[in-house]
Amino acid sequence: MRRVLVALVVTVAAVVVLVSYRTHPPRRTQPRPPELARPAPRPHPPGTRGSTGPAISTPYTTIQVRAFLRHGRLVDVQEVTVENDNAHTKALNDRAVPILHSEALKAGSAEIDVVSGATGTSASYISSLQSAIDRARG
Fold first, then answer.
1. Bridge-based pairing state of the strands 61-70 and 73-84
2. What distance in Å separates the CA atoms of residue 70 and residue 136, rounded to the nearest whole number?
3. Is the dihedral of CA 59, 119, 64, 135 positive or negative?
4. 20 to 30 A Cα–Cα from 45, which one of 18, 20, 76, 100?
5. Residue 124 gets which letter from DSSP?
């Protein structure tokens, strides 16, 4: 009988503590600044063919690029979609995409090295770029 009484008192005390626990509403984060407007498409000389590659997704990012070829050589790349899952991925993409862009233009193809620390982003970029090049070549 004594154990039952102790268990009942402990249970009542636990319920009182739980009921009196004060919760706080979730903190509101600062709204993100709007994304910068994309620059107007650059004019390309006559004879330039453009094609958009597929959107390649990983668990953290989605990347889609558009390739422009002239006489079978890559002359321009535009990033159509670069979606980020979180702040860490955004930071990686913000660093890796410009490097991939310039390396692709230097190489004139999708045969470029991956960016260290951004293997998934690099693989998605290269894959979408190669598909866009293949489509532009017809």
1. antiparallel
2. 10
3. negative
4. 100
5. H
Q: Give me the residue label for tokens 């310039």.
A: 102
DSSP alpha helix (H) spans, the chain: 2-20, 87-107, 119-137
Rg (CA), the chain: 27
Task: Quote the tokens at residue 12.
Answer: 């009542």
Tokens of 72: 């079978």
CA dihedral 87, 92, 98, 99 (to 10 degrees): 180
Which range scores top for mean pLDDT: 22-31, 83-92, 101-110?
101-110
Identify the three-state secondary structure at position 75: strand
Distance set, CA 62 to CA 38, 55, 56 (Å)? 17, 6, 5
| Rounded Cα gap, residues 104 and 41, in angstroms | 18
pTM score, two decimals?
0.69
Q: Which two tokens stand for residue 34?
A: 């709007």
What's the whole-number mean pLDDT along residues 14-25? 78
Is the distance from CB of 112 to CB of 98 less than 8 angstroms?
no
Residue type, 113: D
Q: 36: pLDDT confidence band, cut at 50, 70 and 90?
A: very low
> Residue 43 — pLDDT band, cuts 50, 70, 90?
confident
